[in-house]
Amino acid sequence: MLSPDLRAKFFSVTSQILLRPLEPGTLELTSAGLAGTYFTIKRLLPLFEHNDPSIAIALQTRLNALGQGSDSLIPASQRGFVNAGFKSDEKKEDDPEDALSHLDGASTSQRNHLYAMAARAASMKNDPKAREFADKIEDSDLKKNVRNFVDFILVSKALALRDLEKALHLTRTGEISHFQRAWAYSEIAALSKSSAPEDSMNLIREAEKEAERIETSAEGAEAWVAIARRAGEIDPTGKWYRVQDAIKAVNRVLDYTGEENEISVGFQSQNNIIKMQIPAPTISFSALVGDLAKDDIYRTVAMAKNVAVESPRAFSLLASAQAAFDKGNKR
Q1: At 74, which helix (H) or strand (E)?
Q2: Could you write out the DSSP letters of every residue in 263-283?
Q3: Distance separating the N- and C-terminal Cα atoms of the chain
Q4: b or e along 196-209 (b: 16 or more beta carbons within 10 Å of the residue's beta carbon)?
Q5: Residues 42-70: tens digit of each pLDDT
Q6: How many CA atoms lie within 13 A of 196 on its CB side?
Q7: Contact 187/159 with Cβ under 8 angstroms?
């Protein structure tokens, strides 16, 4: 039995290796190769889903990018080894039905807790029944928080699987915040840009409407940064104008650093605190600036100087410098 510290270190180091931003061609030059890397992620994914679900979502996204929706990278003779030995190790507490088996004789508060845990477990398995379990909670505040958790987890999983129809339906009907909805619309827009470019811009406009409903806060800044990042991918000619909107949002708050790259979602039921970090690199202002600097370093630096808040201004200037260094530009 591994100690908790050693187990955490294993998953931390492993995720850093598996999530390295290497292109398929570069991966072929590594010892594992493209197929070996794909197999390793596929093999370890159930362990991450059980021990570190937020990283599991990022790994699933990586898997989709490498395999482009197919397991064909793994030779047919090897596919049986992907899940070998994992089924017997699954724990009952991660099964929604196990939580619900304790409902008989439970008090109202206990039933609420059991439904919350069942909803959590179902959402991590991408099971739509998670919403049904959450709706059975009688405590209105707990129900609202669990529904928010469940719906946003399901949205993030739909995005990771590139199930755009499901992601859009959940984004429109889910019990999620204006910020979460703005971010989701911008992500769906980016994923739709090749197949439906006109729909993509409509989704960006939907994201902007949601962002306008956010009270002045770090989330508001994150929403406008994400919109600028994704809109720039869809409509490069208008990206500088949207960056100005992002800067205005950033300048309105003091608690946005510019380096945020995850969205936190969670709830508390009895003594259980459930919290997840959803990878969201598009909310990072420094990453946005880094992308812009690849196109026009001098315009980007001039723009970054308009950021009034010290932290995002510093990070954006550093990102510009890094982009210039990477391109080999010398002033």
Answers
A1: none
A2: EEEEEEETTEEEEEEEE-GGG
A3: 56
A4: eeeebbebbebbbe
A5: 888 888 877 777 788 888 888 777 776 55
A6: 12
A7: yes
